[in-house]
Amino acid sequence: MSLGLEPPQLLKKCLFYAGRKFDFEVNRLRLPNKVEGQWECIRHPGGAMAIPITPDGKLVLVRQYRFAVQGRLLEFPAGTIEREEDAFTTIQREIEEETGYRASEWTNLGKFPLAPGYSDEYIFAFLASDLEKLETAPAQDEDEDIEVVLMTPEEFEKAVLSGEGVDAKSIAGYFMAKPFLNK
């Protein structure tokens, strides 16, 4: 099912903050159903994620420290789409930087809104296969604290169901990729 666009009418922009990774707006709007009110929104350029799978069927994940939740989450490699970059270029760069793997086969799995209650961010998901381990160690960004983790699909599902701390985009991306994992 495709979402039809029904943009609200902007009545007044109350606050605007431009950040390093995203912007924050508080706007007075009239929704398509004629209700008026004030809504906050994070404006984000979008992100790209990969569900990497090794030739022997292991998923390549990262355990990454996330300051907002004050802990480490199990995630598939992902990153913010930079200016002048498309989602595919972003994830090709991110998978190498975060995991030290390069994929020669890619399947576009589609996109999904991450948190539409307060953000316009979409995540573009890709299955990355035919992986090659790079000779050099991952070149993680200075502000990243990442450990590479290999798991079978069964181990990943068990981690999700046990409440181990898997982020939502990784759960969604995994289930988008699952039909392709056993081929």
From TrEMBL:
GO biological process, one term: nucleoside phosphate metabolic process
GO molecular-function terms, A-Z: hydrolase activity
A Pfam short name: NUDIX
InterPro entries: NUDIX_hydrolase-like_dom_sf, NUDIX_hydrolase_CS, NUDIX_hydrolase_dom
Cofactor names: Mg(2+)
GO cellular component, one term: cytosol
Keywords: Hydrolase
Gene3D superfamilies for this protein: Nucleoside Triphosphate Pyrophosphohydrolase
Highest taxon, organism lineage: Bacteria
Ranges for domain Nudix hydrolase: 42-173
PANTHER family linked: NUDIX HYDROLASE DOMAIN-CONTAINING PROTEIN (PTHR11839:SF18), UDP/ADP-SUGAR PYROPHOSPHATASE (PTHR11839)
Protein name, entry field: NUDIX hydrolase
Organism: Adonisia turfae CCMR0081
